Amino acid sequence: MPSFDYIVIGAGTAGALMANRLSDAKGLSRVLLLEAGGHDDYHWIHIPVGYLYCIGNPRTDWLYQTQADPGLNGRTLRYPRGKVLGGCSSINGMIYMRGQSRDYDQWAALTGDDSWRWDQCLPYFRQHENHWRLDPDQAAQTSEAFKALHGHGGEWRVEKQRLRWDVLDAFAQAAQQAGIPATDDFNRGTNEGVGYFEVNQKSGFRWNTAKAFLRPTCFGRPNFEMWTGAHVRRLLTERGADGLLRCTGAEVVTPHGVETVTATREVILCAGSIGSAQILQLSGIGPGALLQQHGIPVQHDLPGVGENLQDHLQIRSVYKVQGVKTLNTLAATSWGKAKIGLEYLLRRTGPMSMAPSQLGAFTRTSDAFVWPNIEYHVQPLSLDAFGQPLHAFNAFTASVCNLNPTSRGHVRITSPRHEDAPAIFANYLSTPEDRQVAADSLRVTRRIVAQPAMQPYRPEEFKPGVQYQSDEDLARLAGDIATTIFHPVGTCRMGRADDPTAVVDSRLRVRGVAGLRVVDASVMPTITSGNTNSPTLMLAERAAQWVLADRLA
């Protein structure tokens, strides 16, 4: 029975950083990192546009589907989650986004722990950041205010994108004409403004957490061990003479058979908002009635496990344009595709270097909101749905999401078998507030596109269509054309000691189970105002410090 000081479950965004930090403490701790997927040696992981070939691919994706959703008029959605070293950082949109200061101040209020305030979290973003504007050849041109907010020399590379589009530049100008200020930094505490996103890339290649935190540092450490193709069937727990439940290890299905591994200090669950909730429930830690329904002995009745699912739902407005090139026609011919490939091969620039969304904007749907409450991801292309062919006409897509949805869904096991995917019910647009923001956000899109800067290209609304004007029509149409932007959080949320639905405390320790933490996006009590990958790294950076401090206590 192999024994380690720490077992980290999941080598994704949080797990890679956790394994790095825990095995770096002067070799004092033996660390085992378990990953259900394989190595990140698939070439499409590293070419930025390769997300098209990684999402929906069993080599890199868990291939989840949501349940039929009334808010989406009965539709189901593909729900990608990374199943490979680097996890979702190997298949996501690469956008570097922290969220807004108010997100973290709200976490502090919800947990009763002021250490979650923005000013307390900021140093942990900076700790692993390696921002291009602080490189030696750029630092002299960078303001002191920017330097105070960003870091350099860490493992997490942040670069500017390596392409621009005329149609996106026009959209940015139109947004400014509509009252949205220009910005060159979405990560200063308020992300209001319009500008090109910065991305987690290095010299035109995707920069995932396997490169940043595992390779080569961890792979060369004698106190670090990693298993791939290792599926956790359940966590092991035992009740001591004092009656307290403790997590002692895990039962792992490997290519060589079933292994039992033990942890003398802690098991750290970093399997994500879907996987962490599923593993806890399979282990008898979760809502008692659900566990009994599937014949799983209840080790600890924790009703919040799998509840509180939140996600950003993007509403995809498509506009036909004239007199300007978009990817729809640039990639329409074999010659066009060859030119795109050659540009990337020679210079690491052009469409193959681009993130799924290049231009971003944050603004308000009404004056009732003090902070920006919607985010745009704007792309110089259009298609009916992800994975479908590009349209034959030139067009751009302005996808807009409600940053702080009030709708809540859940993740629940469907059987006692780890092989069976859990039921994912996102419950989108289930509240009047979310339906109103959906309708209003489509009106904001129309207002931007109507500005003078866009008129040379004669934009024509293709989806949803100008015939839809009322709140009711627009909310219903949002259900028809919206899709996830892949930001599930909250299913193991942290909270106060007197909150019966909180799964972990403010230091991410599972309530009622010693020796067990959850460290991933599932612990967020509320979703951050933007893309969730880098906030998850910040969570892991903080948790690693707490774990190491507890070891020395």
TrEMBL record:
Cofactors named for this entry: FAD
Glucose-methanol-choline oxidoreductase N-terminal domain residues: 4-313
Any matching Pfam family: GMC_oxred_C
Residue span, Glucose-methanol-choline oxidoreductase C-terminal domain: 405-540
Domain of life: Bacteria
Molecular functions per Gene Ontology: choline dehydrogenase activity; flavin adenine dinucleotide binding
Keywords, ordered alphabetically: FAD, Flavoprotein, Oxidoreductase
SUPFAM superfamilies xrefs: FAD-linked reductases, C-terminal domain, FAD/NAD(P)-binding domain
Residues where FAD binds: 84, 232
EC number: 1.1.99.1
Similarity comment: Belongs to the GMC oxidoreductase family.
Name of the protein in question: Choline dehydrogenase
Originating organism: Sphaerotilus montanus
